[in-house]
Amino acid sequence: MTTKAPRDDKAVSPAEAELVMILPAGEGSLPRRTGGRATNRVAQLASLLANLVAEGATVDRLAFRKSLEARAEASVKALANDLACYADFCARVRGEGLPASEGRVVAYLEDCEVRKLKPASVGRRLASLAVVHGLLGSPSPTHGPIVRDALRGFRRRVDILQRQAGPLRFGEGVGVEPAKGFTLSVLLQACPGTLPGMRDAALLSLAYDTGLRVSELVRVAVAHIAPESDGTAALTIPTSKTDQEGKGAMAWLSPDTMRRIAAWQHGAGITAGPLFRRIGVLRTKARQADPLPELPAPPGYTWRLPVGTQRPLVREAALATTTFVVGDHALTPAAVRLIIKRTARRAVDEHLVNLSGKELDAAIAALSTHSLRVGLTQDLFATGEDAGPIAQALRWTSTSTALRYGRKLAPSSNATARMLGKVRG
C-alpha cells in the first residue's frame, strides 16, 4: 500500500493524493468479463461436417478423434474457421459440399479471390480441405492439376509477398532525440512503474529473449524458469507449434529480463502458476468532507460551538484510490496484442518516437504478437548468425521461415554491407 503524490515538492491536498493498493493473486476477484462463451471448436467441426457431407459418405470417427488429438488448440481453431469459410461458400453457391470435385474447389478459390482473401489464407484453407477429405477417406481434390494451376494464377494476379509483422528489434535507448521507429528498448522505456507496467515490461523482455510464439508466451509458468547463479535463467518450453509431441525445448533469459520478472512477481505476489496474468483495476474518486448542516436556531438565539471544537462531519474526506487485483489465469493472446499496441501508443504520447500521421498509423497497424519474434530474428541475422542456428534457436523445423523473416532486413545490416563496409569504406 503506497501513496502517490504529484512530482513537485508542493504541499499535497487530500484531493490530489492517491492511495494505491495491490491485491495479490488469490486475494481478490477480477471483474467478470462480459460477452459470450468461447466456441467449442470440436463441436463446431462436427456440426459443419454433418451439414456438408453428402448422403452415402461417412466420417471416420476414429480418424476424426485422432486427427484432433494430434493438433494443437490453435490448429483445431484454424481448421474449424477454414471449414466454416467453405460452408459459407456452399450455402451461397448450390452444389455438392463434401467430398468436393476439382471444379468445386476451383470455384471456391475464385470466390476467395473475389472476396480479396490473401494467397496465404487461401493456401491454408485448401490445406484444411485436404485434411477433411482425409477424414472421409476420399482423395483430396486440392492436389489436382487444375486446382494447382488455379492457385498459381491467383498468386500471380495479386501480391504474393505475405505481409510480415512489423519487427520490434532491440534498438537503442531514447536519447536527446526521439527514436525513428518502434523498438523493444523504446517500448520498455514507455512501460510505467505501476503493477501493469511491470508485468508488460517483463512480458516484452521475455518475449524478445526467447522469440516465443504468443501461444507459447501465455503458457509460461513460474515452474518453467530455472535461475542461474550469473543472473540468467533457462526457460523450459514444454510444447510448441513444431513440437506437438511435447519433447520440450529450452530458451535463454537475460539478466535484465530476470530482474523485470522478479519485480513483477514480487509486486503481484506470484509464486506459482501462470507468470503473466490479467490485472483488474478498481478506482474511486477523492471526496471532500461534508460538515453537519447547521440547524435553525430559535428566534433570538444563536448556536455557538465550544472554543476549540469543530462542527461534526457527516462524511469524512477520502483519498482517491486505485486497487490492482491480480487474477489467477494467464493472459490471452488477444491481451498480449493489446499490450503491445497500447505500449506503442504510450511511447508516442511520451514523445519517445518520432512518428505521426499515416506513418504512425501504419507502424502501429504492423505491430502484432509476432513482432518480437521477427525482430529477434533480424537482430540475429544482423550480427552475422547463419539461418541454421537461428532456426534451431527459434525452434523452426527448416530455415525457410527464418530466411523469410530476415528478407526485409535493412540493407545496411545485411551480409554484403557488413563485408563491403570493411573494405570499401
Structure characteristics:
425 residues, alpha+beta, DNA polymerase, domain 1, hpI Integrase, Chain A, four-stranded mixed beta sheet, three-stranded antiparallel beta sheet, 9 strands, 11% strand, disordered N terminus, DNA recombination, Integrase, Integrase-like_cat_sf
General description of the model:
With 425 residues, this protein is of the alpha+beta class. Among the domains are: 41-157, Tyrosine recombinase, N-terminal domain (DNA polymerase, domain 1), CATH 1.10.150; 184-275 and 332-415, hpI Integrase, Chain A, CATH 1.10.443.10. 44% of the residues lie in helices and 11% in strands. It has helices at 41-52, 61-69, 73-92, 102-114, 119-136, 145-157, 184-190, 195-210, 214-217, 255-268, 333-349, 357-366, 371-382, 387-393, 400-406, 415-423, and strands spanning 2-4, 18-23, 225-227, 233-237, 249-253, 277-284, 290-291, 313-315, 320-330. The longest helix is centred in the N-terminal third of the chain and has 20 residues, at 73-92. The protein is globular. The protein starts with a strand and ends with a helix.
